[in-house]
Amino acid sequence: MVEEGLDQIRNFYRETSGADAAEQTAEVLSLSEWLEEIKAKRPLSRRERLEQALHDAVKAEDYERAAKVRDELRHLKPGE
Predict the structure, then answer these.
(1) What pLDDT score does 29 carry?
(2) I need a surface site. Which of 9, 11, 25, 31 has the fewest CB within 10 A?
């Protein structure tokens, strides 16, 4: 919902003031900040947790763990 509102506000400003003005309005800046807060606080899905675990395993060069996590990701159903 917040994303839809942001799109509508941006479109309005693009049509009336230009693309550059759209990103500098108080409404867009405030809603963008709020959206980032919402995203940061929401619980991660199982897929997102596994993707993070895969990233962490590769970064730590734990390729055995990375392969196991990769296989778990492959077996997830869409939307999981």
Answers:
(1) 86
(2) 11
Residues 6+ apart with CB under 8 A from 14: 22
Please tell me the pTM assigned to this model. 0.54
User: Which one, of 41, 42, 39, 5, lies nearest residue 25 by Cα?
Assistant: 5
- The confidence score (pLDDT) of residue 70 equals 96
Dihedral sign, CA of 30, 33, 35, 41? negative
CB atoms within 10 A of CB 53: 17
What's the rounded Cα separation, in Å, for the pair 55 and 58? 5
Q: Taking the mean position of all CA atoms in its chain, how far away is CA 65?
A: 25
Measure the CA–CA gap between 68 and 47, rounded to whole angstroms.
Answer: 14
